[in-house]
Design brief:
Layout (H helix, E strand, L loop, with lengths): L10 E4 L3 H12 L4 E4 L11 E2 L8 E2 L6 H5 L1 H6 L14 E2 L3 E8 L2 E5 L3 H6 L5 H13 L1 H9 L9 H11 L3 H7 L4 H11 L11 H14 L4 E2 L4 H13 L3 E3 L15 E4 L3 H8 L5 H8 L6 E9 L13 E6 L2 H12 L9 E4 L14 E9 L8 H11 L3 H4 E7 L1 H7 L15 H5 L16 E3 L13 H14 L8
Parallel strand pairs: 1-2, 1-10, 2-9, 6-12, 10-16
Antiparallel strand pairs: 3-4, 5-8, 6-7, 11-14, 11-15, 12-13, 13-14
Helix pairs in contact: 1-11, 1-19, 5-10, 6-7, 7-10, 8-9, 9-10, 9-14
Length: 490
């Protein structure tokens, strides 16, 4: 391995996922000399795209929908979708006709539209309740999203919006579905949104996860990146290099001792990887705390190349970028059993048909589909038959459209991205304790016990998702320690 030691490095970032890249850009644009090291041959972490089924079919192997990216204070500050001096935007986000569809069964479905009123109109007796829960949240999304994603900032960005959200969002989604909502379409819609928390819906704050994602669907939409999510990573790498930063891919870091001397070091890693490379440099108390970190349930994902659009039983679903499949009871049971280490034969399914918004991802007339279901942590089970059975149930003839499929269970996901430990795509269980103490209870949870060492992955506040806030705030903490402000040399 060639030596990395250099007197010309101010900051080293280990890991080029979205948080690591956002951190590196912020540090480089503040005048620091930044080096980013990435194990994979391509930057992006969970943002990477590839033609894994057939030539010409571009699949996002991780994140596809970028509502949090549109709303995140970090991404808004970076303004990747705004035209630069040359009149060209580094990134283009495109929207499907409807952010979300929910297929309850072959005969019933509902849509979440950009409009709160249009969505409420399709929810029958629950329309008024839906409007009451989400109208204000969707209108106040800038302050609310900033307050939730930048939770340690005092005072909050928008205290009024945060308090209103907290009153509604603190409750378990199962409780709200059973008491506030009266009919299955609205109950299923809320349950599917809340299930993105990847914890049983009986847990506190799961309603808040659902309301946040629903509010963003109404407020900013659920877009995809034209050309694939890799374009988000590419835009960040372009910004990094424009600011003088360096990226080295294909370089696995096995110990902090092999890194160049730097004023600050940021780790876009989960606690297991941190212990592997830095455990001997950390105080025993911090080692014990990181060793207690709990990972959540995993997912089994699959990517299909299709000979045509998904043949939904309800044609209205053809315009939904994301489709949730299952009843509210199925969703609750899947999340509960996966958390307890049990498989279900009829899991709820999350599917994304990105070519509805971005036809450039497939040859003319062809389509891609990406879907996952929740499985126990580290599950070795082949869940592809379960996924395809659920899809066939609400889209009869689906299997006839399949040209090729690329399945990825927990082991394959972790091999592709080491941060997806046991197939957990959120960087660690997101129950109440690990949401508050992520990875520790502090106003600066990114700072580790070793001076100048920071954690900036999805295992830090505010958790998983392509919002970049873990990296943005870790970089901010590092700059504060160095006595620099963004735009100033440290």
């Amino acid at each position: 391995m060639p030596s990395l030691r250099s007197p010309d490095v101010d900051a080293v970032v280990v890991g080029a996922g979205p948080n690591g890249l956002v951190a590196a850009v912020r540090l480089a644009e503040a005048g620091l000399r930044v080096l980013v090291l990435e194990t994979a041959d391509q930057a992006g972490g969970g943002l990477r795209s590839a033609e894994v089924t057939l030539p010409g079919f571009v699949h996002d192997l991780g994140a596809t929908v970028h509502a949090l990216g549109l709303a995140s204070p970090a991404m808004r500050a970076l303004a990747l979708t705004e035209p630069g001096p040359d009149g060209r935007a580094a990134l283009e986000l495109v929207h499907p006709p409807a952010p979300l569809g929910h297929a309850i069964d072959a005969g019933r479905s509902t849509l979440l539209h950009r409009s709160v009123d249009a969505t409420a109109a399709g929810l029958g007796r629950d329309g008024r309740a839906w409007r009451g829960m989400l109208a204000r949240l969707s209108a106040n999304w800038p302050g609310l999203t900033a307050s939730v994603l930048d939770a340690t900032r005092l005072p909050p960005h928008d205290l009024g919006a945060l308090l209103g959200f907290g009153v509604r969002g603190v409750w378990p989604a199962s409780f709200v579905a059973g008491t506030v909502l009266r009919e299955e379409p609205a109950r299923a819609l809320l349950a599917g949104l809340a299930a993105h928390a990847a914890v049983p819906l009986s847990q506190p704050l799961t309603t808040g996860i659902g309301l946040m994602l629903g509010g963003l669907a109404h407020g900013v939409g659920w877009p995809v990146a034209r050309g694939g999510s890799q374009r988000v990573a590419d835009a960040l790498v372009e910004r990094l290099r424009a600011a003088g930063g360096e990226l080295r891919t294909g370089h696995r870091v096995t110990s902090l001792a092999e890194l160049p001397s730097a004023r600050v070091t940021l780790l876009d890693l989960t606690p297991r990887q941190v212990l592997a490379i830095a455990g001997d440099a950390l105080p025993a108390r911090e080692v014990r705390r990181l060793a207690r970190w709990r990972y959540g349930a995993g997912v089994f994902a699959a990517h299909w190349a299709l000979d045509g659009p998904v043949p939904w039983a309800d044609p209205a679903l053809a315009g939904a970028g994301t489709v949730h499949i299952g009843t509210s009871a199925q969703i609750a049971r899947t999340e509960r059993d996966a958390a307890r280490g049990r498989h279900v034969d009829d899991p709820w399914v999350l599917a994304v048909q990105a070519t509805v918004a971005d036809p450039t991802r497939a040859p003319a007339g062809k389509h891609t589909l990406w879907a996952y279901c929740r499985v126990p942590y580290g599950s070795p089970m082949d869940a592809l038959p379960h996924l395809e059975r659920q899809l066939e149930r609400v889209a009869p003839g689906f299997r006839d459209r399949v040209l090729a499929v690329h399945p990825m269970g927990p082991a394959e996901l972790e091999a592709w991205n080491a941060n997806l430990v046991g197939g957990d795509i959120g960087g660690g269980a997101t129950d109440l304790r690990q949401l508050a103490a992520r990875p520790r209870l502090s106003l600066t949870p990114w700072a580790m016990s070793v001076p100048g060492l920071y954690l900036c992955s999805s295992s830090t506040l505010p958790g998983g998702g392509v919002h970049g806030m873990g990296g943005w705030n870790a970089a901010g903490a590092a700059l504060a320690r160095l006595g620099a402000r963004p735009g100033e040399s440290a």
